[in-house]
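Re: the 260-residue chain
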Amino acid sequence: MQEEKQQADKKIVIQTEKITVGFGQNIVLNDLDIDVYQGEILGVVGASGTGKSVLMRAILGLTPKRSGSVHILGLDYDQASHDECRLVDQKLGVLFQHGALFSSLTVKQNIQVPMREYLDLSETLMDELALMKMHLVGLALDAADKFPSELSGGMIKRAGLARSLALDPAIIFLDEPTSGLDPIGAQEFDRLISNLRKTLGVTVFMVTHDLDSLFSICDRIAVLGKKRVLIEGKLEEMLEFDDPWVKSYFNGDRARRVKK
C-alpha cells in the first residue's frame, strides 16, 4: 500500500495508452500501455522480436503507430502543434544501439548536430559545449577531432551519449547501451548512466538485455511479451512473476551468477 502511494505521488513523464504498431500484416505491439516516472531508470526487456526498440522508436515518433496515444512531458504529440512538439523534442536525448554517429563528421561535430538543429550559437560556444559533454561522459578530449572510424566501440558509445546530452535533456533514451562492450566496459557504462541520473536528474528509458544493468542500476523494469507489457515494476516483482520466460530470464543460471 505504501509503495502504491509513493508511485502515485511520482510525476509521469512518458505515458503510452493502447498504442499499436505493425509492419504490413505483422502486429508488433498491440494496445500497449506503459508509464515512465520522473527521475527513474526504467529498463525495458523482452525476448528477441518482442518490440523493445520498436516501442522506443514509436514513443519518439520515428516509427508510426497505428493507434493509441503518446504523452511526453505532458504533451499529447497527436494533438500538439509542430512548434509544441519541437520544444519538447529539445528535451529528449537518444543513444541508438550502434551509436548512429555520422561517419563524415568528427566526434565534436557529431555532438554539435542537435545544437545546430535547435539553437543559434557561435562556433566558439558550440566547441566549448561539445568538449564539456565529452568530459561529462568520460571521453578523452583528444578524441574531439577524430572520426567514428577511428574510435573503439566504447568510445563510440560515449560519443553517442555525449550527443544525446547536447541540449541538456530531461529524458534520455538508450537502446542497448552496453551491447558490444566487454564486461568491464559495460560495468563502467552502467556506472556512468547511474551517475548522470544522479548529477543531472535525467529520466532514463533504457532498452536492454543486459542482466547486470537490470540488477545494478534500474529502478524499475518493464517486460515486453505477447505484444504488450507483461509486467512493470521492481526487480523483486520480476522474480515472483508467474510467466515461463520471465521466470527463466530472472531466475535462470545466468541470472543467479549475476546476483552473486
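Strands lie at 12-23, 26-37, 41-46, 67-72, 75-76, 92-95, 171-175, 203-207, 220-225, 228-233.
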